[in-house]
Specification:
Elements (H helix, E strand, L loop, with lengths): L11 H12 L9 H10 L2 E6 L2 E6 L2 H9 L4 E2 L8 H4 L8 H11 L5 H21 L6 E3 H6 L2 H10 L6 H12 L5 H24 L5 H7 L9 H32 L1 H9 L4 H11 L5 E6 L3 E3 L2 E3 L4 E5 H4 L35 H18 L4 E2 L7 E2 L5 E2 L3 E3 L2
Parallel strand pairs: 2-8
Antiparallel strand pairs: 1-2, 3-5, 4-12, 5-8, 6-7, 9-12, 10-11
The structure holds protoporphyrin IX containing FE.
Length: 402
């Protein structure tokens, strides 16, 4: 830490948070919650050295909401410094008219009508194809066998990208979002994804189909079309945005149910209870723990003066465990009255356009798994742990079924 007084700081958790963030945003950290609780209480805006340079971490719900609501002061252009480096110029870093134009292009593909009519049948088919492959084993790791590739298959189908090797494609997607960890690998992955997608663009331009790729190539907003580079940047974002996040949510919901047997019984008896279980998981173990912003002017937060031009890590995961908003925040409570206040999908102009798809995919997958894998339970002596700093989910789900 280069600013403030962290090295001699009497708060050991703050110092360890600094090491942790300075070390890696992708670290397999299991329990960041005591650190966040301490930061919310004592250092709500903490300066630290991130892999992307000097940054500030906002950990309180109210400050996170302030950053999300005030896009003029907390600009999204900061996203160009992280994943934007490898993905190209994406919607995440756009603002104003340019941002609106791209939102108009994608929103219809993920709206309720398209989901109901086009996507749900594909989701159900994909779930059953996957479960057919391992149902007879009576046991296994649901991360490896199911959650890891499941959402990638769906987003690939929605976009219209025929992927033959999902495991390889997923590793590219992981490398892209892991740019802070291994930039060379991320750039290599970006190139591989472009090489893979480029021929498809030419093909769909000549021969459009009913998929998102054709719609993106042919759609006109305000009389303009997207260039090839814009479409490629979009797909490089959409594939990991749609896959990397939802696989984590599906795993974390299964983890929440398996570690809370009473809730699991509740959901087994009445699958309409799955929707609140998914919402509480989004709050309790938010798959995306941070979004980044850049200050356009000096601001004061929690007693700290943050200059203009600083990188801000907006800690959605910490906000979702803020005790001033969510009493007993570390407990998984199925009918938490204000669970809808969670901000796992962000807030404001950049609110996740795939939130309904993510909820639907997760609910349908867990429902079908519970139906097809009776008496789903941990294997004897086994358990799962949710890990990660920037993105969180269980690494393994070692289970048995009858
Ligand atoms: C559990 C699953 C998901 C979580 C937790 C999640 C979370 C988020 C968050 C927090 C943001 C806001 C980023 C910011 O403010 O800088 C976001 C934006 C975005 N998400 Fe998701 N997401 C999920 C699933 C999906 C899916 C399935 C799609 C695919 C359609 C998707 C596509 C996007 C896109 C394109 C953006 C950028 C929107 C913009 O900048 O205007 N996400 N997501």
């Amino acid at each position: 830490m280069t600013h403030g007084s962290a090295i001699t700081d009497p708060l050991p958790e703050v110092a360890s948070a600094t090491l942790l963030f300075g070390g890696s945003m992708m670290s397999p950290i299991a329990n960041p919650w005591p650190t966040y609780a301490r930061l919310r209480a004592e250092r709500p805006a903490m300066a630290f050295d991130s892999p992307m340079g000097k940054a500030w971490l906002l950990s309180r719900y109210d400050d996170v909401m302030r950053a999300a609501r005030d896009s003029e002061t907390f600009s999204s252009r900061g996203n160009a410094r992280g994943a934007g480096l490898v993905m190209g110029r994406t919607i995440l870093e756009m603002e104003g008219r340019e941002h609106l134009r791209q939102r108009k292009l994608i929103t219809p593909a993920f709206g309720p009508k398209a989901l109901r009519e086009e996507v749900v049948p594909a989701i159900i088919r994909i779930i059953d194809e996957l479960v057919d492959g391992f149902e007879r084993d009576r046991g296994g790791d649901l991360v490896q066998q199911f959650t890891f590739t499941y959402p990638l298959r769906i987003i690939a189908e929605v976009i219209g990208v025929p992927i033959n090797d999902f495991a390889e494609f997923h590793h590219w997607a992981l490398a892209l979002v892991g740019i802070a960890e291994d930039p060379a690998k991320a750039f290599e992955a970006a190139q591989k994804i472009s090489d893979y997608l480029h021929p498809l663009l030419d093909q769909r331009r000549k021969d459009p189909r009913q998929d998102l790729l054709s719609k993106l190539l042919h759609a006109e907003v305000d009389g303009e079309r997207l260039s090839d580079d814009e479409v490629l940047a979009f797909l490089r974002l959409l594939l990991p945005a749609g896959a990397e996040t939802t696989y984590r949510l599906t795993g974390s919901v299964l983890h929440a149910l398996l570690t809370h047997p009473a809730v699991l019984e509740d959901v087994r008896g009445d699958t309409s209870r799955l929707a609140p279980a998914v919402e509480e998981t989004l709050r309790w173990e938010s798959p995306v723990q941070y979004v980044s912003r850049e200050t356009t002017r000096a601001v004061e937060i929690g007693g700290s003066e943050i200059p203009a031009g600083e990188l801000i890590m907006v800690a959605l995961g910490s906000a979702n465990r803020d005790e001033s908003r969510f009493p007993e925040p570390n407990l998984f409570i199925l009918d938490r009255p204000n669970v809808a206040d969670h901000i796992a999908f962000g807030f404001g102009e950049h609110f996740c356009p795939g939130s309904q798809l993510a909820r639907l995919e997760t609910q349908l997958a867990v429902k079908r798994l519970l139906e097809r894998l009776p008496n789903l339970r941990f294997a004897p002596g086994e358990k799962s742990t949710v890990v990660g700093m920037a993105l969180r989910s269980p690494d393994h789900l070692p289970v048995l079924w009858d």
